[in-house]
Backbone:
């Protein structure tokens, strides 16, 4: 099947999403005439829904994902999940190997430390929770699921920015429910208002949430950066643009 008079082949695409970049890519693929199903894990209460078809919830491990790929005759899986969603990315590699569907992963380039920034790289959340001194006023921008790693630091104060509030934040923690993108001046105002001494972040890459890194650098706030999990090898590109480039080539 071809679209109009160009060379695009219409594909049946499973787009593993849950990121702004995935949502934008869904619109562009739909506009090109591809049959796109975006998949969301169902972590947020009111997700922003992409164009095209959407399914929500886990597949049931790599085998469940493989069954879904076969049942829906998917010929291309695009992994546009967040770089810290390591399980689903590994499942995608296994399921695509088993079903021989093509897999393209988007891996956004990592953020580099700005000039002069205080920047400590740590391997995981446990190490992040040990990376600041007693009395620190810490802004956590790591999502909701791993906040527990910081609960024992009763010697510090915490502001946790999340999309949906956690059910069990310790007493005294401030919870700020907000969804990016965030502007530099707003990030600086937030950090000044509290006043933050340490920022804990994942190295998400991309533009959506980069302003906090710049704001921290400008205000002399130390950044505790949790490094990315390692993923099994796959055909990898750096952006949605590059995905479209690969599809135009094939
Ligand atoms: P994860 O640890 O890699 O995945 C845990 C399980 O959740 C997977 O085994 C899978 O269940 C299910 N799952 C994850 N992503 C899915 C998707 N897009 N569609 C269907 N099922 C999915 O994932 P996570 O870190 O919890 O992230 C969940 C979602 O939030 C992802 O879509 C990710 O893009 C988004 N997100 C994550 C972060 C983060 O920091 N981790 C930040 C922003 C957005 P089954 O094994 O049952 O299939």
Residues:
């Amino acid at each position: 099947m071809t679209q109009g008079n160009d060379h695009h082949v219409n594909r049946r695409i499973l787009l593993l999403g849950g990121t702004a970049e995935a949502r934008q890519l869904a619109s562009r693929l739909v506009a090109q005439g591809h049959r796109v199903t975006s998949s969301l894990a169902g972590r947020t209460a009111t997700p922003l829904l992409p164009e095209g078809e959407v399914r929500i919830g886990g597949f049931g491990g790599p085998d469940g994902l493989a069954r879904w790929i076969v049942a829906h005759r998917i010929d291309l899986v695009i992994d546009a999940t967040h770089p810290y969603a390591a399980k689903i990315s590994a499942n995608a590699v296994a399921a695509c190997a088993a079903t021989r569907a093509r897999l393209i992963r988007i891996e956004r380039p990592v953020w580099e430390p700005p000039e002069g920034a205080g920047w400590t790289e740590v391997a995981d959340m446990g190490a992040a929770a040990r990376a600041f001194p007693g009395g620190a006023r810490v802004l956590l921008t790591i999502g909701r699921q791993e906040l527990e790693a910081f609960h024992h630091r009763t010697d510090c104060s915490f502001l946790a920015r999340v999309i949906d509030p956690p059910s069990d934040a310790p007493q005294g923690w401030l919870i700020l429910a907000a969804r990016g993108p965030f502007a530099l001046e707003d990030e600086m105002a937030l950090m000044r208002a509290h006043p933050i001494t340490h920022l804990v972040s994942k190295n998400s890459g991309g533009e959506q949430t980069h302003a906090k890194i710049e704001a921290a650098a400008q205000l002399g706030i130390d950044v505790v950066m949790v490094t990315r999990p390692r993923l099994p090898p796959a055909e990898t590109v750096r952006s949605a643009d590059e995905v479209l480039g690969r599809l135009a080539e094939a």
